[in-house]
Amino acid sequence: MTLRELAEATGCGLRGDGDIRIDRVASLGNAGPGAIGFFTGDRHRDELADTRASAVILREDAAGLVSAALIADNPHLMFARAARLLHPERERPAGIHPQACVASEAQVDASAHVAAGAVVEAGAVIGPRCVIAANAVVGAASVLGADCRIMSAAVIYPDCRLGDRVIVHGGAVIGADGFGFARDGERWEKVPQLGRVILGDDVEIGANSTVDRGALDDTVIAEGVKIDNLVQVAHNCHVGAHSVMAGCSAVAGSTHIGRGVTVAGGAGINGHLHIADGTVVMGMARVTHDIRNADVYASGTPMATAREWRRNAARFNQLDAMARRLRELERRLAASEPDERKDS
Q: Which ranges carry the UDP-3-O-[3-hydroxymyristoyl] glucosamine N-acyltransferase non-repeat region domain (predicted)?
């Protein structure tokens, strides 16, 4: 593909020789002839100066730094689109592998691909051009829209609903029972989890993440949500459209996460909360109450040397006593003020 063809396909502006051949994407530091990279700011300016890439995607104000470029307001986004064009996914042949296990009552579109070892249970519906990879499982009565990809060893439990273009990566589990138990004296009795999991269009679930089915109502992951690896979404949760959850984050049951929310890595959100649209929860933060106003929220202590951390931890444990002493000093000061005014 020429640089001019790539510019037309991505909607970017063109600077320099449009006949340059581009056959791959690469980082600025590792690029060579035929590669295109991207540049977004001063942090990589040294790499840009030394890059051997044939072209770079960047903003208009940086176009003079290279001889050949694609111009875009959002270089990272255009880089993603270029990468999809230059590195298309491997096509998988339509049909059901002889070593797949597909129930006679299942409906599998003729254009879908079902790999060896995959299981499609009775009543499941597999939409057009879906890929069910090796050893993946689609449970009974689950329904997949068009162009879904269920990767190796992923499990879709029975009666789940997936929209179009949903990706579930290897080892992820959609629709397992939520953590619901009723106390009976010293023992716990399981509460049946009767809801479903609903994944909207263009949802992506990372490897080894889990989305539990609802106890009574459905667990809903709205359209465009992106969930990283090793994320836990508990029963009855609702994650609003185009929100993102990074690795090792977790949300407890019955919490409503708004639209366009960012939950950074390792963050934990308690159950039965409401998180406002557009909220950003920073890494390792613990959310213990509703967030009604969108903002950037953080908690926890930053990294320090072990010696500093121990000293700070000791002082933290002394805060209550220090507060009592401060209140006592304030009381004594207030009591002495009338006498001081009388003496003056």
A: 19-85
The two tokens of residue 43 are 């942090």
CB 142 within 8 Å of CB 120: no
Helices (H) and strands (E) counted in the chain, each on its own, are 5, 37
Active site residue 235: yes
d(CA 162, CA 197): 8
Q: What are phi and psi of 83, to 5 degrees?
A: -60, -40
Q: One of 235, 238, 256, 289 is an active-site residue; which one? A: 235
Q: Does domain 3-86 have CATH number 3.30.70.370?
A: no
> Mapping DSSP to helix (H, G, I), strand (E, B) and coil, where does residue 331 land?
helix
Q: How many CB atoms lie within 10 A of CB 323?
A: 10
Give the pLDDT confidence of 218-271 residue by residue, as tens digits. Answer: 999 999 999 999 999 999 999 999 999 999 999 999 999 999 999 999 999 999
- Per-residue pLDDT for 342 more than 90? no
Residue 341 pLDDT class (50, 70, 90 cuts): low
Question: In terms of DSSP bridges, do strands 107-108 and 149-150 run parallel, antiparallel, or are they unpaired?
Answer: unpaired
Cβ–Cβ < 8 Å for 265, 232? no
Comparing CA positions, the residue from 273, 278, 285, 205 lying closest to residue 238 is: 273
d(CA 213, CA 217): 9
Phi and psi for 65 in degrees, rounded to 5? Answer: -85, -15
Return the CATH number of the domain spanning residue range 95-297.
2.160.10.10
As a whole number of angstroms, the distance between CA 131 and CA 90 comes to 11
- DSSP letters spanning 106-138: -EE-TT-EE-TT-EE-TT-EE-TT-EE-TT-EE
Q: Which residues pair with 268 in a beta bridge?
A: 250, 286
Nearest to 114 by CA among 131, 129, 127: 131
Strands across the sheet containing 173-176 = 101-102, 119-120, 137-138, 155-156, 173-176, 210-212, 232-233, 250-251, 268-269, 286-287
Cross-sheet strand order for the sheet of 131-132: 95-96, 113-114, 131-132, 149-150, 167-168, 204-205, 226-227, 244-245, 262-263, 280-281, 296-297
Helices marked H in 51-99: 75-86
